[in-house]
Structure formats: structure tokens, C-alpha cells
Specification:
This protein is mainly β and 431 residues long. It is built from 5 helices and 22 strands.
Length: 431
């Protein structure tokens, strides 16, 4: 076999559907989830589809009073953990929902292909799918940027947590060793249809000048993807007696904290200046570009970012796109962006204009396929689905059990046979 054939074979083994798995500390249950990002399409929100795997079925048979519950919570954290005193937590639950997963009430059905694949591979005797259907108008995941290199506590912002736990009652505080916490995040994909181009025109009169300075400005489109340059088309008709000397172009992030009272924070995330020389009775039409990036704003505390899971990299917070009927207080943090145009003229005059736009994510290419309902299960294709750990390292059940609060390993469907050594297994099983 040639080296190129080996590379192709290695590449093919890595092609597959990746899922996340996390086991509780005592090894009784594990939770599998296909993605830790669920998408808000404004009109509807993707369901949170996961699978519960019970490792110690005999224990549940002997202790029938214990059940397994799942809970999804959106929390607005507005203070540091180390400031919590006298039982006062600086956080507020904006949304919560819970259900009983085991024993199954009624018929447990798969809503996505990933659930179907996991159920066939893990076995329907011990694996139980569950799904949360979220209502429209709940907040998106937003993190407020902390001080650089500050890792002492969780950052402020809105975060989501999917929790599965063993308890006798849904409202009973569970044993921490029997809890699986998975941080997930909600992101917004703006509609594919573009809104009308942002456009504004303005005129300003100056003292001792019989005619005004007239300016028209527009963006090349209304919706931008993170990292895209923004093109601003400006037309100036200078009928005044003053010359336009300089143009300042900036992108401002406006974050509205809608918790107890409306507090608005503005932060400049990009800024450029251009020297001009537009004399009286002169007209120009010119296009300028600007690109807002998080890399240029790492040192700005309080800047709104898209929700982070652990130490993963992120980007500027996406624009909040909500239905008009949405409760603003339930949205937590409302983010919007504007392009600000400032024209400076001789003798101290200036003209300012603002153009709003939307900053969002593109829809992934594989998104629609992953969210399709699963096909009817057949024995013919059940063996073609396998799990494998990603290149982060070999899978070890003991490692998962010991570090259940820290590691959420990435595993790969369609790679190698699945084995379950239990929570106390010390053999490294390469999925």
C-alpha cells in the first residue's frame, strides 16, 4: 500500500458523525449528545436531542424508587462565584424545563439521525433517547469578556446546561456523584433572505454658509457573517463654504442588559480614519471598508461574546434576533451593531450618521442532514455505525469517571466497534 493510499484510508476513517459523551462520577449513567450548539432560526429552535445510557441496570432494578431525570436550564450569571456569600447567588434562571427519562413514560422515540445511530449501537435495552423542544424567545448564549488571563471563576453572561441525574424525585437534590452536567450553547442563524440595504442621508448647515453639506451612506448588505468586511458607500455633495477634512468610520457593539433594569453598554470594536479634502462645491462618491474582529479587542473587559464552552475560542456576540412578542427581560443580554460615520470639516464642524446591521453565523453545510429524522432501524445497517475517540487521545472509562466534571471527550460515529467496559474499567478502549 502506497503512502497516499494510507493517507486516504486514514482520512476516510475520520469521516463520520462526532458526538459528545460524559459519565457521572460513580459510573451509573452517561449522556450522549450530537452537538453542543443548537440553533435559533428566529421562528423555531432546534430541539436538544440526547441519549441516556445506563451502565448499572441491575442497580436500578434493585432500587426501583430511583429514577433518571433530565433538566435544561438557561442561567444569567451577573456576579463572580467568589462573591457568593450567605447563600446569595449572583445568578438568575431565565428558563428551565425537566423531564423523566427512565423509567420511560410512554414511548421513547428518536428525533434525529444521531439519536438513531446511538440507539442502534448502544442497545435499546440500556439506551434511552430524550428531547427538549425549546420555545421561541429564550436568550442566546452570551459571555461578557473578563479581564485578560482571569480564570478564577466563570465569566458573567447567559449559559445553558443540560443535566441528567439520578434521584427519587425530580425536585430532590441529587448526589453530585450521580449527576452529569453538559454545558451547551444557543446560537442564532440569521435568515437566508437579506433585508433591505441600510441607507441614510443627512444634511447639515453651518454658520455663515448659505448651503448645507449633503451626505448619503449605505452598506452593501444588511447581514454579515463573522469575519466579513463591511463595505460602506458614501456620497458627499459639499455645497457649504467649508472643506471636509477627515472621515472616521467605526463599528460599535451595543449591549442591553435586560435583567432588573435596562443598562446599555457601548463598545467600539473596530475603527478606521481616512484623510479627505472635499472642497466647497465638490462632490465625491467613495467606498470604505471596515472589519470587526475579536482578535483586535481581547483587552476590552465587558465586551459581549458568543457563549463559550470551557476555554474554546469564540467571536464577537451575534446580533440578537428575536420575535416582537419576546419578553425582553427573558432575553438576558440584547446585542446589536451599528456603523458610525463621522465627518469632520474645517473650522470645527462635524456630521454624524449611523447605520444598523446584523452580525451572525452561516448555516453549516452538514446542518440539515444531521437534523433530519432518523430512518427506520434495520438490522442490515446496524453494524455500519461505530464510535471512535477523536485525536485528543485514547478513550479510557476510568479517566472519564475520574474527570467527569472537566472532560467532555469528542467521539466519532462510524469508525470502530463500540465497547463498554464500565466505570471501573482500567483498560483503554480505542473507539
Amino acid at each position: 500500500m502506497t503512502s497516499s493510499d494510507k493517507k486516504d484510508e486514514k482520512k476516510n476513517t475520520k469521516d463520520g458523525t462526532r458526538v459528545f459523551k460524559k459519565m457521572c462520577l460513580d459510573g451509573k449513567i452517561s449522556t450522549y449528545i450530537g452537538t453542543r450548539e443548537f440553533v435559533d432560526h428566529v421562528g423555531h429552535i432546534d430541539p436538544i436531542a440526547a441519549v441516556l445510557l445506563i451502565h448499572e441496570m441491575d442497580w436500578f432494578t434493585e432500587n426501583k424508587e430511583y429514577k433518571v431525570y433530565a433538566e435544561i436550564t438557561a442561567t444569567f450569571r451577573y456576579g463572580r462565584d467568589d462573591l457568593d456569600v450567605l447563600g446569595i447567588n449572583f445568578k438568575k434562571d431565565l428558563y428551565t424545563d425537566a423531564m423523566q427519562v427512565y423509567p420511560v413514560k410512554g414511548v421513547a422515540s428518536c428525533t434525529t439521525k444521531i439519536q438513531g445511530k446511538l440507539l442502534k449501537k448502544l442497545g435499546s435495552e440500556r439506551a434511552f433517547p430524550f428531547t427538549f423542544d425549546l420555545p421561541a424567545g429564550i436568550p442566546s448564549s452570551v459571555t461578557l469578556q473578563p479581564v485578560k488571563n482571569d480564570t478564577s471563576s466563570k465569566p458573567c453572561g447567559v449559559e445553558y446546561c443540560l443535566k441528567t441525574y439520578v434521584a427519587k424525585d425530580m425536585h430532590e437534590p441529587p448526589d453530585r456523584k450521580q449527576v452529569v452536567d453538559l454545558l451547551i450553547k444557543k446560537i442564532t442563524h440569521a435568515p437566508d433572505t437579506q433585508a433591505p440595504q441600510p441607507y441614510i442621508e443627512s444634511a447639515k448647515n453651518f454658520m455663515m454658509s448659505p448651503n448645507p453639506l449633503h451626505v448619503e451612506a449605505r452598506l452593501d448588505k444588511e447581514r454579515y457573517i463573522h469575519g466579513e468586511p463591511i463595505y460602506v458607500h458614501i456620497t458627499m455633495g459639499n455645497q457649504s463654504t467649508r472643506a471636509v477634512k477627515k472621515l472616521r468610520l467605526s463599528v460599535k457593539q451595543v449591549a442591553n442588559i435586560c435583567l432588573f433594569s435596562n443598562a446599555i453598554y457601548k463598545c467600539t470594536v473596530a475603527s478606521v480614519e481616512h484623510d479627505l479634502n472635499v472642497q466647497p462645491s465638490q462632490t465625491i462618491a467613495q467606498t470604505f471598508s471596515i472589519r470587526p474582529l475579536l482578535e483586535d479587542n481581547r483587552d476590552k473587559r465587558g465586551l459581549a461574546l458568543d457563549g463559550q464552552i470551557k476555554s474554546e475560542d469564540t467571536n464577537l456576540a451575534s446580533s440578537t434576533i428575536a420575535l416582537p412578542i419576546a419578553n425582553r427581560e427573558a432575553l438576558g443580554i440584547v446585542v446589536k451593531y451599528i456603523v458610525k460615520i463621522e465627518l469632520f470639516v474645517s473650522m470645527g464642524g462635524e456630521l454624524k450618521l449611523e447605520l444598523p446591521f446584523t452580525l451572525s453565523h452561516p448555516i453549516p453545510e452538514h446542518y440539515e442532514e444531521d437534523m433530519e429524522p432518523p430512518p427506520q432501524p434495520t438490522d442490515a445497517n446496524a453494524d455500519n455505525i461505530n464510535l471512535e475517540l477523536d485525536e485528543t487521545g485514547a478513550y479510557n472509562n476510568t479517566l472519564l469517571s475520574a474527570q467527569a466534571d472537566h472532560d467532555d471527550p469528542l467521539i466519532d460515529l462510524e469508525a470502530a466497534p463500540l465497547h463498554d467496559g464500565g466505570a471501573n474499567s482500567s483498560t483503554a478502549t480505542n473507539y
